[in-house]
Amino acid sequence: MKLDRNSYGTIALVYLVCGALIFILFRFCCLWVAIPASAVLLWVCGWQTAFHLVPRRRKEGSDKLVSAVSDGRVVIVDKAYEKEFLKRDCIMVSIYMDFWDVHANFWPLTGTVSYTMYHPGEHFLAFKPKASEENEHTCTAIRTADGKEVFFKQLAGGFARRIVCYAKEGMKVEAGEQCGIIKFGSRIDIFLPEDAEVLVKVGDVVRACETVIARL
Fold first, then answer.
1. Which of the residues are catalytic?
2. Structural contact between residues 71 and 174, judged by C-beta atoms closer than 8 angstroms
3. Domain boundaries, the chain
4. Which architecture characterizes domain 65-215 according to CATH?
């Protein structure tokens, strides 16, 4: 495992704040308060380090197999019109991440980035339907060698305040390599061609890179 390259500053800030609070606790509080409170703060440091790790995973995706962009639970599998870039009917698969899921995101498909755009917005709870349109999000499309395109959104949630996407138009990408990270609870919407064979259903728990969600 390695740390997300965009998260060193975040982790350093968490350690700095927790260290300062521990110093204050031992300087001004009695031990029966300082010790358990410091243990909680040390746990927060460990949790935040784990949260920003980029795990090594089997890469099950390809230019024909679409793998999960993130860990989490499938909350939507339904037909939807993608109006920003593809401008056609698709099958949308939404994956919700909670606090305890790995929040690093990974390319779902091998191909070329054909579109990417960041949208500022609100921070509604990520599992609400209106979050897909109104929350802060980044959109990316990948085109395979045979012209198939998959479009996905990294959506901020009620507590997420930072979306990182490493996409650039024209970039060659490989399924299972890291494409970014969303910091705290959030959601991924994946728009698949109508003729894709969807291999997951609502309620399924998926793992980034390893769970194949559709066959093109």
1. 186
2. no
3. 2-54, 65-215
4. Distorted Sandwich (2.70)
